[in-house]
Design a protein that fits this description.
Length: 459
């Protein structure tokens, strides 16, 4: 057979194999990132009219699409109005998912959404089945735009008297979308470049509005639907109950722990009035759940504060939301498993329901992957950049969990470390999704034979 016929035969075989939904999601995100990179490379995207080059554009586009928030340059200082529009568009698409944007097109054009699109939509929303997926997608779109609109209105009214209507409107829309999508990008650099929200650390309207947007965005679309339909805690599913309770405990417990660790730190909460300490302690607890805004300088946190931040960042938000990380229910499943095993029990229970062992193993697998990657990333960054291990691990987990908070070392990373962060941001947004929905929830590989068992000494 000639080479031409072999190539044709191979192409026909590949043509018969359509991409799986998880592969479609991965490829779509990669294409969006590439398109965003090309747009940000244009001279018109930079404030000085000079192209920033491919690497900074790729880093920024990946951070925006994967709703992370890590940046090499201050967003307002580097990017023009056009560049900022590109960034906020990538954040919106990446936060809601590309299928949300695609379904919006279907709904506007009044076209029927086919079975394949419904399947991809279900995967993108972290659903196990396609029943009601179009209705949920409509709820997601309507709810997202409504919440972002209310947030933008509040922020605009707050900024208007001091900064004028046009700037207030631009700031209100940008930061409302960025907060709801848990991205953490800001355009406040015209006040103090790179200071994020430190200029507003005594402003409860700004901090509490952004906190509300971050929390709502991080709960998950399925939780929204249950809250809207059932409106009573006792009627909620076990999943929704776990999400709400875990989120509440992490927010309040995290805020209390941060205040305790940073209360007298002269570089963070120390100089503030006690009311501002409580406000910023709460905001720090919220933003560590994959949001990426900063009202205090993360580089000057105590070692205990950084350690707590690493844990909260790793946990992240909830499944099917704009947030990243290990996810709240995954984390609480691990805790319930440890509690059950410590008492000598084989079953894991929550609200008088048994959690399947396969899902417990899935949670352990995702946890093991993320922790392994975080440790490797911390060592790699520390070895290739002039950064201490704690700050390197901080950076790695921030990228993996799509948080975007930094200890101030992102611009100092080596080129190799920057590319690792790019890969981690992509994996944190897309990889965890495809693993949890494709590998863990797919058909298990058939075991054709089994080896004889052996006993080991554990512990």
């Amino acid at each position: 057979m000639s080479a031409r016929r072999k190539l044709l035969s191979w192409w026909l075989k590949q043509r018969r194999k359509p991409l799986s939904p998880t592969k479609i999601i991965s490829v779509a995100f990669a294409c969006i990132i590439l398109l965003g990179s090309l747009l940000l490379m244009l001279p018109a995207a930079s404030r000085d009219g000079i192209s920033c080059g491919f690497r900074p554009a790729l880093f920024t586009a990946t951070s925006a699409t994967c709703v992370t928030g890590l940046v090499l340059y201050d967003t307002w200082t580097q990017w023009s109005g056009f560049g900022q529009i590109v960034i906020i568009s990538l954040i919106q698409i990446g936060g809601l998912g590309f299928m949300s944007a695609a379904s919006l097109g279907f709904l506007v054009l009044r076209k029927k959404i086919g079975l394949k699109h419904r399947l991809v939509m279900a995967q993108a929303l972290s659903l196990n089945e396609m029943d009601g997926v179009v209705r949920l997608q409509k709820t997601v779109l309507a709810g997202s735009f409504a919440v972002e609109g209310v947030g933008a209105l509040i922020l605009t009214l707050r900024f208007w008297p001091e900064y004028g209507f046009r700037k207030a409107l631009r700031w209100g829309i940008f930061h409302s979308i960025s907060a709801f999508c848990n991205a953490g990008f800001d355009i406040l650099g015209c006040i103090t470049p790179g200071a994020s929200l430190m200029e507003f650390q005594s402003d409860p309207i700004v901090l509490l509005t952004l906190s509300a947007l971050v929390i709502i965005g991080g709960l998950g679309f399925l939780v929204w639907q249950e809250i809207a339909e059932k409106r009573a805690f006792r009627k909620f599913s076990v999943y929704t109950k776990l999400v709400l309770l875990t989120t509440l405990v992490l927010l309040l417990g995290g805020a209390a722990a941060i205040c305790l660790l940073e209360w007298n730190n002269p570089a963070t909460l120390g100089p503030m009035h006690w009311t501002d300490k409580l406000l910023n302690g709460f905001f720090q607890s919220v933003t560590l759940r994959t949001a990426g805004f900063a009202s205090v300088d993360q580089a000057y946190l105590t070692e205990g504060g950084k350690g707590l931040s690493l844990l909260l960042m790793l946990i992240g938000g909830s499944s099917g939301s704009t947030a990243g990380g290990l996810k709240t229910v995954t984390f609480v499943t691990l805790l319930l498993f440890l509690w059950a095993r410590a008492r000598g029990r084989d079953t894991v229970c929550a609200f008088k329901r048994v959690i399947p062992n396969t899902q417990v193993m899935d949670a352990m697998t995702i946890f093991g992957i993320l922790v392994s990657l975080a440790l490797f990333g911390g060592i790699f960054i520390c070895a290739t950049s002039p950064v201490g291990f704690t700050d390197a691990l901080f950076e790695a987990i921030s990228a993996l969990a799509t948080v975007g908070i930094t200890a101030g070392v992102t611009p100092n990373l080596s080129i190799l470390s920057q590319f690792l962060i790019i890969l981690y941001m992509y994996f944190g947004r897309v990889g965890v999704l495809t693993i949890s929905l494709g590998f863990l929830m797919g058909n298990k590989a058939e075991e054709r034979f089994r080896y004889a068992q052996t006993n080991l000494l554990i512990g």
